Amino acid sequence: MPFINVFGERHNAEPRLGIQANLAQFALLIVINAFVGGMVGLERTVLPLIGISLFHLHSDAIMVSFIVSFGVVKAFVNLFSGALADRFGRKRILVLGWLFGLPIPFLLMWSKSWYWINVANMLLGVNQGLAWSMTVNMKIDLVGPRRRGLAIGLNEFAGYFMVGLTAFVTGYLASCYGLRPKPFYLGIGYVLCGLLLSWLFVRETQQHVAVEAAQRSSSQQSEKLSFREVFLRTSWRDRSLFAVCQAGLVNNLNDGMSWGILPLFFSAYGLSVERIGLLKFVYPAIWGIMQIVTGPLSDRIGRKGLIVPGLVLQAFALALILMAHRFSGWLFGSVLLGLGTAMVYPTLIAAVSDSVAPQWRARALSVYRFWRDMGYAIGALLAGILADLLGYAWAIGVVATLTFLSGMVVFVVRRHRAAAF
Q: What angle do CA 79, 61, 379 make, to 5 degrees?
């Protein structure tokens, strides 16, 4: 008789594709990704203010260095996470990501110099690059080709809603108890829960990849690509994939600016930490919640029809935040920014998955996520330098313009296509 685990699933049962057939594991991975997102949310409100108030950093470019270190490390970890997952298994890489996350909350609470804050964010980059990548890949493995948009939408909903919720809670705690250490106590719970759930209850999904591959035609199965070939095809040679990669980079470019510069922009207008926390909650919360709608919607109407208007809406939202001079305007702009990002974010991942074979999908997604998360570093560094030289308004305005231009690139370059696999 097959062994039945605590979720009521049989370990030696033949793997089947689909959400319903893998509901317990799918739901577990959603919960785990909420904890992954919470680790990023720890920093969204409080850390830029710590740099100014506690470490007395006078350069915006130096202050946002924590985002640069996070983005660069996460991008390169993303690049190799797919190959590592194919070689060692998804579950092992997921658990490894959580092990790198263990020191992070303690470094954020007790660091005596900004150097150690940057070290914490390098570890956060590894944690996110491994753990978030694996939750995405494992859900795609489980559901098969027909419900990718829904699967990714639910995954990103859990992660980014928790980013926003944690940003709000840490802002509230900081307003009550100070910027450190109490706002970061949440991180200890997040990392322990994520590690234990991943170690004890998550099951490997590589067998589901084999099932999907077996359902393909022999010509599709015979295509074997090296990592170099996957990198070149995803980054440049396939024009539709190139359009997706540049859009992902620009999406995170404006998110990196939002992370590092907007709290300082709002603070310069005299906004309290608690109200800044509310604004930093609204943007990722709307982003997270609406992905439940935009993910499956992209399965129905196609990817390009959400990516282009989503980028244009992001640009408009940033322009609105720049032109507004009161809380209500910033709040409305944050709502629109979250909505535009929700239209773009899961759709881009699904667009990559549509265009590649399952045998090299994890590596192609890793390449896309490499370019996407380099946007954190580029956006934060660009915004920091512009803020130092010209002020916050120029930083926000330039990023808004780049976001609009990225939408036009997708409109011109990317072909409309249904799922290729």
A: 40
Q: Is the peptide bond before 346 cis (omega within 30 degrees of 0)?
A: no
- Enter the tokens of residue 201: 């209850």
Contact 380, 43 (CB under 8 A): no
Instruction: Please give the chain's pLDDT, 421 residues, in tens.
Output: 343 444 434 454 677 888 888 899 999 999 999 999 999 999 888 898 899 889 988 888 888 898 999 999 999 998 888 888 888 999 999 999 999 999 999 999 999 999 999 999 999 999 999 999 899 889 888 887 777 778 888 888 999 889 989 988 998 999 899 999 999 999 999 999 999 999 999 999 888 877 776 666 544 444 677 888 989 999 988 888 999 999 999 999 999 899 889 999 999 999 988 899 899 889 988 988 898 888 888 888 888 899 999 999 999 999 999 999 899 999 999 999 999 999 998 899 888 888 787 778 778 888 998 999 999 899 999 999 999 999 999 999 999 999 999 999 999 987 655 443 3
- Whether the bond into 181 is cis, omega within 30 of 0: yes
What pTM, to 2 d.p., does this model score? 0.83
Count the residues in the chain.
421
User: Looking at the domain 20-201+225-413, which fold is it?
Assistant: Growth Hormone; Chain: A; (1.20.1250)
Indicate the SS3 state at residue 118: helix
C-alpha span between 98 and 104 (Å, rounded): 10
User: What's the CA gap between 138 and 202, in Å, rounded?
Assistant: 10
Domain segments of the chain as ranges = 20-201+225-413
Instruction: Go through 138-157 and write b for each residue having 16 or more CB atoms within 10 A of its CB, e for each that does not.
Output: bbbbbbbbebbbbbbbbbbb
d(CA 73, CA 130): 11
In the numeric block, the tokens 């009550």 are attached to 176
| C-beta separation of 387 from 256 below 8 A | no
Interhelix angle 327-354/304-323, rounded to 10 degrees, is 160
Asked whether 340 and 310 are in contact (CB, 8 A), the reply is yes
Please give the full DSSP string across 308-352, using - where no structure is assigned: HHHHHHHHHHHHHHHH--SHHHHHHHHHHHHHHHHHHHHHHHHHH
- Report the alpha-carbon distance of residue 201 to residue 260 in Å, rounded: 36
